[in-house]
Specification:
Blueprint (H helix, E strand, L loop, with lengths): L1 E7 L5 E9 L8 E3 L13 E2 L2 E4 L3 E6 L7 E2 L1 E3 L10 E3 L1 E12 L2 E12 L6
Parallel strand pairs: 4-7
Antiparallel strand pairs: 1-6, 2-3, 2-10, 5-6, 8-9, 10-11
Length: about 120
């Protein structure tokens, strides 16, 4: 994974949701949850992921390195669903939602980021 993107926030009690939406292809309009980690069997296996981690003050996002030809933002292999919705996508819409619960007040923060593999910043 490559290119860490930080979204700085401060919250006490929180709920977070990290999603990515396919903008084109067989799954255009479908939303996928981002992963907390990613594992592959070998260094040449195709994979797709945006990885996230967070602390009390920030959310970090990682995307595949642009120099890795088998790393995608969304990867659904042909063995899933008989191949009818297979996809290898390098451009997605990422949404990070943080709901801060402080007493009786509920504050929702939403950040939408467009990731394109190969771009170094947002």
């Amino acid at each position: 994974m490559h290119n860490v993107y930080a979204i700085r926030m401060k919250w006490l009690k929180r709920l977070t949701k990290h999603t990515m939406k396919a903008l084109k292809g067989n799954n255009a309009g479908f939303t996928f949850y981002a992963g907390g980690s990613a594992m592959i069997d070998t260094s040449t296996d195709p994979y797709g992921a945006i990885i996230y981690a967070y602390t009390d003050t920030e959310v970090l996002l990682w995307r595949p390195n642009a120099s890795v030809s088998h790393g995608f933002l969304i990867y659904v292999g042909e063995t899933w669903g008989n191949g009818t919705h297979s996809q290898q996508d390098t451009e997605v819409e990422v949404t990070v939602r943080v709901i801060d619960i402080n007493g009786i007040h509920v504050i929702a923060i939403q950040c939408v980021i467009y990731f394109k593999k190969g771009f170094s910043d947002i």
